[in-house]
Amino acid sequence: MGKRTVDVVVPTRKPDGSFRELIRMLGRQSVHPDHILIINTGEEDWDESLIAGAERTEVFHISKEQFDHAATRNMGVGFSAADTILFMTQDAVPVDEYLIERLLKPFDDPLVRVVYARQIPKQDCRIAEGFVRSFNYPDRSRSQKIEDVQTAGVKAFFCSNVCACYDRRLFDEMKGFSAPAIFNEDMVYAGRILNLGYIVYYEADACVCHSHNYSALQQFHRNFDNGVSQAMHPEIFGRLRSEGEGMRLVRYVTRKLWQTGRIYLLPQFYWQCFMRVLGFRLGKNFRSLPAWMVKAFSMNRSFWKNGIPENPEY
């Protein structure tokens, strides 16, 4: 295949200095994006100076009620004519000038249809969270195929739209991300294309700086939405267990904290893990909960504005 065209799609909500740095680093890439398409939630909060000097950058405004993890990104693709779409979040910053170049290389294999980047913790990232990042985003690249489900479980479907490149032709054939989506639009898509025999590729040499210092309560809300998304997609997650991967994560971080002499951080880490598991299990059973409780437990409360939706459509 010849030279690929690349458009970057970035959903934003009250973007700050990290977004400014993202735009600056996109302008320095060895492979320049053809367009940067920003889908901003809340025109009243938009600061035009954030993209000052950026070339081929367009901003499209939507209301908070219109935002959806899948539909908003599908909208961004609709404004693009490129044959590769790079989705990023407003707080993910390329660590060097070669992010896009390295993300495009695995597409030389015609079976590779999604390539996602490694996430490096920010400087202010908590120690335990930094180890979580290194567990989820190791320093070795890998191909993910449907056969890996037997050994890797739900990890075979892992993908992150924090920074991920998609082949446009297949994206259109798949009618984009399944909407509406409260969470995991990327993993649902990955599961769908793996089931068709395609490959999702993790490129460890393509790196962005990205991390969060969530509180235990925020972890609860986030993992509640994770559980909801899995419950809404039994065709992808129904035969898989996520708990095994969770236990591997706990053992990995425990070992790292012990080896680095930071065992004093274990109680806080275990408390966060408990809240993650509690939120996830409640989310998996959200249809058994009263509507007010579902909304109260969710991080993305606007998702429930019209009540509890049926399973998303492709």
List the helices and strands and how they pair.
Elements (H helix, E strand, L loop, with lengths): L5 E8 L3 H10 L8 E7 L15 E6 L8 H8 L5 E5 L4 E2 L4 H6 L7 E9 L6 H10 L5 E3 L4 H4 L10 E5 H6 L11 H10 L4 E11 L6 H16 L2 H4 L5 H17 L6 H19 L6 H7 L17
Parallel strand pairs: 1-2, 1-4, 2-3, 6-9
Antiparallel strand pairs: 4-8, 5-9, 6-8, 7-9
Helix pairs in contact: 4-10, 8-11, 10-11
Can you walk through the features of this model?
The chain is α/β, with parallel strands linked by helices and about 325 residues long. It folds into two domains: about 5-210, Spore Coat Polysaccharide Biosynthesis Protein SpsA, Chain A; about 215-305. It is about 35% helix and about 20% strand. It has helices at about 15-25, 70-80, 100-105, 125-135, 150, 170-175, 185-195, 215-230, 235, 245-260, 265-285, 290-295, and strands at about 5-15, 35-40, 55-60, 85-90, 95, 110-120, 140-145, 165, 200-210. It is globular and about 50 Å long.
Model regions low in confidence, pLDDT < 50 over at least 5 residues: none
Top-tier CATH class of the largest domain:
Alpha Beta
Structural class by SSE content: alpha/beta
List how many beta strands DSSP finds.
Answer: 9
Defining traits:
single chain; 314 residues; Spore Coat Polysaccharide Biosynthesis Protein SpsA, Chain A; 9 strands; alpha/beta; 12 helices
Short précis:
Helices cover 37% and strands 18% of the residues.
